[in-house]
Amino acid sequence: MSTGPETIRRFLAGQTEAATRFLAELVKVPSDNPPGDCQAHAEAAAGLLEGLGLAVERHPVPEDRVRAHGMRSATNLVVRRRFGEGPVVALNAHGDVVPPGEGWTKDPYGAEIEDGWMYGRGVAVSKSDFATYAFALLALEAAVAEGAALAGTVELHLTYDEEAGGEIGPRWLIEEGISKPDLAIGAGFSYAVVTAHNGCLHLEVEVRGRSAHAAMPATGVDALEAANGILSAIYAWRRGLGAQVSELPGIGSPQVTVGLIEGGINTNVVPDRVAFRLDRRMIPEERPEAVEAELRGLIDEAAGAFPGITVTQRRILLAEPLVPSEGGARLTELLCRRAGEVLGEEVVSKGVPLYTDARHYAAAGIPSVLYGAGPRSIEEANAHRADERLPLAALQQATEVVALALFDLLEG
What we know:
Blueprint: H1 4-13, H2 16-27, H3 39-51, E1 57-60, H4 63-68, E2 75-82, E3 88-94, E4 113-114, E5 117-119, H5 128-145, E6 153-159, H6 170-175, E7 183-186, E8 193-197, E9 199-208, H7 223-238, E10 255-263, E11 273-282, H8 288-303, E12 310-319, H9 329-343, E13 349-352, H10 358-363, E14 368-370, H11 378-381, E15 389-391, H12 392-410
Parallel strand pairs: 3-6, 3-7, 7-14, 8-13
Antiparallel strand pairs: 1-2, 2-6, 4-5, 5-15, 9-11, 9-12, 10-11
């Protein structure tokens, strides 16, 4: 009788084409967020999973909750496989993706393969890990079918609002009592096990003045002039953020970016309203409430230099940083060891300057790490950029790593 790891390797070696087809079908179904109309993708994914012989639970999020988070539809998918008494391990990947944007040389929904890379929006972040986790679970089932004894449960949590904050994805599954995992693995890349990441604050700032004819601008209150002053203060303040560096490898310094701006009425009218949204990345050493208070104070102070201007600030998102957890140390060690074996080089744990849905598991007291299919960096994957891509070898390798690490963790 072959050993469990031998069975896993043999099984996955025979599933390479199936996993590639599975991923391609996911990429071909748009799930851009915004607008966040992800029902069709959830149904397609559920059908593909059922085609693999997996039982799929569909958990539609109530429409009012969906709308409150700026989306149109969201159904979370859960697959459970109980092998015996033991820990429950959740594997979470998200199917919603940022819109393609411009600059593509491939069809964003074409799943084209060139030189061993598959191209398409979401192929790396993180539709690939729908495939990673599903086929890792199938590999465990193959090992059990050949006599391996496992103690525990593996769940797939396939959710659809990571790009909008994860509030109606993983957080909703946990708060509703749909799942109560003991450990969680979230979507990631193959050459590092991520145990920490940044937090994030999104603020919307609305600057209001009073419109006037452009021939007599002094009769109005120029909202754009005031917004320019506020933005100049933010950018001047941003230059000092690099002095603070996280002690956790891979995290770096805090950041702030103004990503959206709108306003004005017409070319010949003094603008009465300008609104912008900013993104403030927080390193794990920072306190989110202190960061928000400092930024709000900076904006109010800058606005005070412009008589007649009113400013409203609205929090859009506050994502807590992820920090390493003692409860996740064993899982981290197993993933690093198996990844080193499969990839043929040392794989270590580190932080990343992103924020992810892993924080929702961590906030519920569930130790969480990130690991999945991808190249060495988000830049190499073109994540959130044109021509997003995934090396298909990484899909096969990451699936083997996850399956072997779960086998080690659950082996009875």
